[in-house]
Amino acid sequence: MSKITLDYQTAEGIKDAPEESTIALAANAVIKHLGIDKPVELTVRVVKDNEAAELNLQFRSKNYPTNVLSFPFESPVELPIQLLGDLVICQSVVEREAKEQNKSVIAHWTHMVIHGTLHLLGYDHIQEEDAVEMESIEKRIMASLDYPDPYETTSNTEHTL
User: Fold this and answer.
1) CATH number reported for the structural domain that contains residue 15 in this entry
2) Which amino acid positions bind Zn(2+), per UniProt (predicted)?
3) How many domains does the chain have?
4) For the chain, which terminus, N or C, has the lower number of CB atoms within 10 Å?
């Protein structure tokens, strides 16, 4: 099984973000599910609305904060560790979405890390068939961590940060 190195960052003023171990568990579940044996490294940064909106505008031309942004790293040379890239997760968007979708906050955080990590590994949901594949993988990984289907909005599984 792969060893994951996580650089976990929180922007100034962020309070009550998930524990690093929660983030690492979600990312590692992706690596395990996909059978990646090489050591991997990724950065996860928890941000406020303004930083998320600035990055979303700069890189996606969308002028609003979004739940998760993925910035894959593609090394020009073979490295002993696979550098996946960076995830930027907007705390307020994730927490608002969890409430609106009647999900536990921690389940939604976990889903965002899984979703973003899959993007770092090349998965996307632009085409319908790709979206179906990606969602199926997300559902299986969430289930492996005892979370409900992230695309159902009626559950409220009790997990703690």
Assistant:
1) 3.40.390.30
2) 115, 119, 125
3) 1
4) N
CB 40 within 8 A of CB 81: yes
Residue 159 maps to a domain: no
What lies within 8 Å, CB to CB, of 109 at 6+ separation is 18, 22, 23, 26, 89, 94, 98, 161
Residue type for 122, please? Answer: G
Q: What is the pLDDT of residue 114?
A: 98
Kindly report the backbone phi and psi dihedral angles of residue 18, in degrees, each rounded to the nearest multiple of 5, phi listed first.
-60, 155
Helix (H) or strand (E) holding 141: helix 128-144
In-domain check, residue 152: no
Annotated binding site: 115, 119, 125
Domain encompassing residue 121? 4-144
Portion of the chain with pLDDT greater than 90, in percent: 79
Query: Does an H or E element contain 47, and which?
Result: strand 40-47
